[in-house]
From TrEMBL:
Group of enzyme by EC: oxidoreductase
Organism superkingdom: Eukaryota
Statement: the UniProt record of this protein carries the keyword Manganese: no
An annotated GO cellular component: mitochondrial matrix
GO biological process, one term: fatty acid beta-oxidation
InterPro entries named in the record: 3-OHacyl-CoA_DH (IPR022694), 3-OHacyl-CoA_DH_CS (IPR006180), 3-OHacyl-CoA_DH_NAD-bd (IPR006176), 3HC_DH_C (IPR006108), 6-PGluconate_DH-like_C_sf (IPR008927), 6PGD_dom2 (IPR013328), Mito_3-hydroxyacyl-CoA_DH (IPR052242), NAD(P)-bd_dom_sf (IPR036291)
Positions of the 3-hydroxyacyl-CoA dehydrogenase NAD binding domain: 48-232
Descriptive protein name: 3-hydroxyacyl-CoA dehydrogenase
Native organism: Funneliformis geosporum
Residues that hold NAD(+) according to the record: 52-57, 75, 140, 145, 167, 191, 324
ATP-binding recorded as keyword: no
Amino acid sequence: MSKFVISTFRGRLTNNVTKTTFKTNLIRPLLLSHNFSSTSNNYAVQNISVYGSGLMGAGIVQVAAQYGFKVTMVDLNQEFIDRGKEIINASLKRVAKKQHKDDKAAQNALIEYTWSNIETDIDSVRGAEKADLIVEAIVENLQTKQNLFQQLDKVAKPNAIFASNTSSLPISEIAKATQRQDKFAGLHFFNPVPQMKLVEIIKTSQTSKETYKILNDVIMKMEKAPVICKDTPGFIVNRLLVPYLMESIRLVERGEASMKDVDTAMKLGAGMPMGPFELCDFVGLDTLKSIVDGWRKDGKIDANLVATSKILDDLVESGHLGRKSGKGFHKYV
Ligand SMILES: NC(=O)c1ccc[n+]([C@@H]2O[C@H](COP(=O)([O-])OP(=O)(O)OC[C@H]3O[C@@H](n4cnc5c(N)ncnc54)[C@H](O)[C@@H]3O)[C@@H](O)[C@H]2O)c1
């Protein structure tokens, strides 16, 4: 069934047949179960635990829940969980409004349905108990990610698949912390998760075909577009994007053009939806810096492509991290 047909069909159901949450909830899982039939063994993912309720984690939780998965959102404390809930709430309202324009009942039904699929937990062990799939979206630090997966490996179901949303760390290095490297892969979502269609599925040399197939099914069920990539620095998108962002910063640093003009040039001359400085702020300057620093240390990428930038380092050091802190290259207040 094409995406267009699925969307139209759902639209008709919600608009003409199912005016109540109750009916929507009954019919939606039937529609959504369609994709499961293609899984090669009978292992179907129903429960997903997402670790990290920040920018990415909250987005992944929202999309998974919207598409019928039972999701547990796990973070270190209630304050972080509450912030994650706020991110979901704001985004979900936008999605509901976009999908169901003037139909308030259908908007509320989508919001209620999504929340009915979400639980939260601040106990990392308990958070993993039900999971068929664990998606990790915590801080971009190899040791922290390894520590978490090592702990989860001992308590999660033996068949549970583990995935990391890392932007820049080698998946195979994170996977080494576990005894299930065949059930370990990268699932690289893009920001903002509810809007961005692409998900890179990263296969290490150990990732089994079965694991890849199941992850592919999960991503299809979320109506996203999966692409496969080997475990190579930056995968596809960031490998091309990060050197471009860094060269934009260096171009301004060298005094060759202003930040405003570089943003304008790339939007109007190269058809980019955002200028590189707007994109840096959107991604988070700390995230960008940690990717570049990591790659430089790693030595696998041409050093000129990942050379340091004083402007970037200074902004991060002063806590100006982009949109999330209210100021980066641009101001957001
Ligand atoms: N920001 C982006 O545009 C983007 C895009 C794709 C992938 N990523 C990757 O996604 C991951 C998360 O990025 P983000 O921007 O959402 O970060 P973020 O800082 O917004 O959120 C990280 C969250 O993880 C939580 N956390 C830390 N340790 C934890 C633990 N042991 N258990 C549970 N929660 C824990 C933190 O409390 C925080 O809420 C990173 O690996 C990053 O590289 C980021």
